[in-house]
Amino acid sequence: MKFTLVVLFAVFYFASAAPVDDSKNAQIVRYDSDNIGIDGYNFAFETSDGTSRQEQAQLKNIGAENPALAVRGSVKWIGADGQQYALNYVADENGFQPEGAHLPHA
């Protein structure tokens, strides 16, 4: 009987120590959006699990033969390993240009 209680206690102890995936329960804590119309847009958001993203876009070469949408943005998140990561990017007539980084833990 004592052995069963010890095993049961151990199971509960290790189950409660398991990491919790907060991303499934993340709440939006900030959201900004500005649709500029045909000229572009801006948006940004943050969630309670440490994820954030911001992006701006602007139409370039308006009225020209090859107008292009130029997008700049960044996203940050906490990985499954508990470390913070960031990705900055530009997407324009030259393609998608990402630049990533591992950030020191906040």
UniProtKB/TrEMBL annotation:
Q: Which Pfam families match?
A: Chitin_bind_4 (PF00379)
**Alphabetical list of InterPro entries matching this protein:** CHIT_BIND_RR_consensus, Cuticle_Struct_Prot, Insect_cuticle
- Record flagged with keyword Methyltransferase: no
Query: Which GO cellular component terms, listed alphabetically, does the Swiss-Prot or TrEMBL entry include?
Result: chitin-based extracellular matrix
- Annotated Gene Ontology MF terms? structural constituent of chitin-based larval cuticle
- Signal peptide stretch: 1-17
Listed A to Z, the keywords are: Cuticle, Signal
Q: Does the keyword Signal apply?
A: yes
Q: What is this protein called?
A: Uncharacterized protein
Q: Which organism is it from?
A: Hermetia illucens (Black soldier fly)
Q: What is the lineage of its organism?
A: Eukaryota, Metazoa, Ecdysozoa, Arthropoda, Hexapoda
